[in-house]
């Protein structure tokens, strides 16, 4: 008998780890998952994530915070151990933390390239690997990797960023292929510019208006729209969606 639509989005009894969760897309994802009943573990390098976790809907102490720098060796495995130790399990991983160091290709420094790959690619893989082991053991899991429209198109001054996000999509597909038999789905989400605090600053003024003019919808995405898509992929409603890169860009890449 088919489940009712509302039940498909019920995450009661699930534990979700969201990285980069102190603000922006990570916070929007955490809010969406918490509203659906999940217990949240919020990870961020910013200690303010503790206050964010305390403010999420739910009983006092329900949600936990992990303050960590994911580029430090061993941080990913330690974070997963911390979450499973505090919450008893890990069902959902949202790999959201990232960085955009923009520079023309001919002048981009090796350090900027390495920093981009460390946070945008290596850390998400190590987190997925550590979380995946726990999910394989339990026979269930949902992993959502934040990519970008930059994973499928070229953007000037984004050479390291584009490369890292394209690699995230490739990684997503391999993990989806290998882990489906364990009840795990792995998908990527690729937004256009999102109206986070950082997004509004980076795309303020004429450069932002020019970018909006290229988007058929005529605007940037809202964080809650990305959070809703992440909720869908983390829910039973998307149980048959696996290895996909879902672009949410108002039609930008349809042209």
Automatic annotation (TrEMBL):
Source species, domain of life: Bacteria
One GO BP annotation is: monocarboxylic acid metabolic process
Pfam family name, one: adh_short_C2
* Alphabetized InterPro entries for the sequence: NAD(P)-bd_dom_sf, Sc_DH/Rdtase_CS, SDR, SDR_fam
Q: Which Gene3D superfamilies match?
A: NAD(P)-binding Rossmann-like Domain (3.40.50.720)
- Quote the PROSITE patterns the UniProt record gives: ADH_SHORT
Family the entry assigns = Belongs to the short-chain dehydrogenases/reductases (SDR) family.
Kindly give the NCBIfam families that the UniProt entry links to this protein. Answer: PRK06841.1
Name of the protein: 2-deoxy-D-gluconate 3-dehydrogenase
**Naturally occurring in which organism (per UniProt):** Paraburkholderia rhizosphaerae
Q: What is the lineage of its organism?
A: Bacteria, Pseudomonadati, Pseudomonadota, Betaproteobacteria, Burkholderiales
């Amino acid at each position: 008998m088919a489940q009712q639509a509302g039940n498909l989005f019920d995450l009661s009894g699930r534990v979700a780890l969201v990285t980069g969760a102190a603000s922006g897309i990570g916070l929007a994802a955490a809010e969406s998952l918490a509203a659906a009943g999940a217990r949240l573990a919020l990870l961020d390098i910013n200690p303010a994530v503790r206050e964010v976790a305390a403010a999420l809907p739910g009983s006092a102490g329900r949600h936990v915070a992990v303050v960590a720098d994911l580029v430090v060796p061993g941080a990913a495995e330690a974070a997963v151990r911390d979450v499973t130790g505090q919450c008893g399990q890990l069902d959902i991983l949202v790999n959201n933390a990232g960085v955009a160091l923009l520079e023309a290709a001919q002048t981009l420094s090796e350090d900027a390239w390495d920093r981009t790959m460390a946070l945008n690619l290596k850390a998400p893989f190590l987190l997925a690997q550590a979380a995946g082991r726990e999910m394989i053991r339990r026979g269930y899991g949902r992993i959502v990797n934040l990519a970008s429209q930059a994973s499928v198109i070229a953007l000037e001054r984004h050479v390291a960023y584009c490369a890292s996000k394209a690699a995230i999509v490739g990684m997503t597909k391999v993990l989806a292929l290998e882990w489906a038999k364990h009840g795990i789905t792995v998908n990527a989400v690729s937004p256009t510019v999102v109206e986070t605090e950082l997004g509004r600053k980076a795309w303020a003024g004429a450069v932002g208006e020019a970018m909006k003019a290229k988007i058929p919808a005529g605007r940037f995405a809202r964080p809650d729209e990305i959070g809703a898509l992440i909720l869908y992929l983390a829910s039973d409603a998307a149980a048959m969606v696996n290895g996909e890169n879902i672009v949410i860009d108002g039609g930008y890449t349809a042209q």
